[in-house]
Each structure stands twice: as structure tokens, then as C-alpha cells.
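User: Teach me something about this protein's shape.
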Amino acid sequence: MKSIEHIEEFLYLSDENNNSILKQSKNGLNALAQQLYESGIYIGTTLVGFDFIKNCLHDEKFTAFRQDSLVKYLAKKEREDFLTEGNDYRKLKDLEFDGVKAPIPFETYFSWMKDFSKILSDNKVSLLTGSDTYGLVIIWFS
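Assistant: First, the predicted structure itself:
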């Protein structure tokens, strides 16, 4: 493996006791980052894409997306997929995860991803620049 393209993939990891990586100590995350550094794997954080996803769960932010000047650069099919209530992440906004409405864990995930990106950088892990494309993460503007 030469790269991991989305830092969110780390959210699916757990330790031998089935504890989520979200519960890892800073020392544990630094140790993981050191392993990644030594392996030579590149990490693409794609934080902008996940930021769009988490913002789809908030009514005000989602409404603002529809009025964004960049919407004109999306193909009609993409506008229908990303900027309507049919958006897959929009459908999650009222769901609960472990008794908590979806926007809260998604905020937690995004905060963790930003913190982990910093840990990776501090440990000299090679990070790929790029935003991916999803929703209003648009080529040339993202």
C-alpha cells in the first residue's frame, strides 16, 4: 500500500480490545503516526470533503450550499445528488448514533481528523495535498 486517501478511514480502526481509535490517547496516536512514517505510506487527509459531508447535516449550512455561487459549476445530476434532500448524508441528519443525533458525532469525527492530521504532520508522515471532489468541493475552487 502506498497511500491512504481519506483520513476518515482511520475512524473504522479499533484496537485489540475493540476500542475505537477515537478513544486512543495522544501517545497512542503518536505511536501510530510513527508507524505510518516508518512505513512510508502517504496519507491524503481530504478534510474539505468531510467538512462538506458534516455540514450537510445542518439545515442552515445546507441551505447556504444551495445559494453558493459555485453551484453553477456543478452538473445538473450532481446538483440533484448533492444539493437536495436526496443527498445521502442529508438523510442521516435526524438519525441517532448511540443515542446522539448524527450532527454531534460527525462534528466529533471531523475534529478528531483535524487533530490526527496535525499529529501526522508533527511526526513527519508524508501528507498528500488535495481536497477530493464531493458536493461543493469543486475542481479548481477547492
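Now, about its shape. The mean pLDDT is 91. The longest strand covers residues 42-44. If you'd like, I can walk through any region in more detail.
User: That's plenty for now, thanks!
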